[in-house]
Amino acid sequence: MDTRTKITLTWQLHEQGVNNSQTAKRLEVHWETIGLWLKGVREQGSTYRQANKQPRPARLRPPPLAGQVPLSTKRLVRQLREREHGCCGQGIAYFLEKEHSIVLSVPKI
After folding, report:
1. HEC states along the chain?
2. What is the pTM of this model?
């Protein structure tokens, strides 16, 4: 069944007093979708484009997780590894702490 048809049927069933969960079962969509369609029809009108293609809020970028290594520190690790000719993780940790006052565990390196 076409989405436009489902939106039209949703509105007709709503006007008849059928609740959203029963409508969702009949049309085989999630009940929250029914609520979005009804909200779109109420606010925008009954056309498909207006009811289905309303602007959505932009997603916010999540902050970096605790424990992630900043990009600047990653660059320092690469530079030290090149400078010290492929030094091991413990050596890199030593140079990071001695030269840049950065404490970083060997598994993070």
Report:
1. CCHHHHHHHHHHHHHCCCCHHHHHHHHCCCHHHHHHHHHHHHHHCCCHHHHHCCCCCCCCCCCCCCCCCCHHHHHHHHHHHHHCCCCCHHHHHHHHHHHHCCCCCCCCC
2. 0.44
pLDDT in tens, 26-48: 999 999 999 988 888 887 776 55
CA angle (28, 20, 26) in 5-degree steps:
30
- Domains in the chain: boundaries: 3-52, 71-100
Q: Mean pLDDT across the stretch 88-102? A: 90
